[in-house]
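Key result, reporting period 2: structure in, sequence out.
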């Protein structure tokens, strides 16, 4: 079976799409987790500097990478139903990054539990707004 790209209509095998979602989710989780850890715990007492960033890469990045994989897979396949454009994915990732960093400033390590929920809510919101926009374009008032 082949999956259709939402933007271009190109056909690509499902396993390549799944591998892309898996890899992208891990990388995004790693980056978001690292920045959350660095900012959140930097404000809450670890400070900022090279050692704090290395700790953030090891602790926050590892946790973020592992949490990002199932969150990305559920968000893409279950919530967005594989009908996401690159723009929609970028909105979700940017929102998760900003929201996760704000959560880490407010709640430090608890943000690791908040960010996946936020990400899935963003997926649903982006999908809903796109669906509403598409239906209003089909049925102008």
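The corresponding designed sequence is given below.
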């Amino acid at each position: 079976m082949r999956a259709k790209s939402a933007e271009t209509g190109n056909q690509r095998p499902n396993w390549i799409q799944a591998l892309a979602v898996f890899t992208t989710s891990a990388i995004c989780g790693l980056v978001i987790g690292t920045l959350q850890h660095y900012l959140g715990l930097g404000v809450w007492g670890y400070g900022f500097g090279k050692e704090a960033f290395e700790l953030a890469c090891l602790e926050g990045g590892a946790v973020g990478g592992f949490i990002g994989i199932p969150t990305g897979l559920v968000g893409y396949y279950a919530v967005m139903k594989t009908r996401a454009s690159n723009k929609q994915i970028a909105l979700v990732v940017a929102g998760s990054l900003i929201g996760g960093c704000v959560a880490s400033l407010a709640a430090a390590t608890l943000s690791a539990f908040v960010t996946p929920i936020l990400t899935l809510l963003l997926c649903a919101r982006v999908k809903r707004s796109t669906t509403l926009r598409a239906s209003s374009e089909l049925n102008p008032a």
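Helices lie at 14-46, 50-79, 86-107, 111-138. The longest strand covers residues 2-4. This case is discussed further under Risks and Mitigation.
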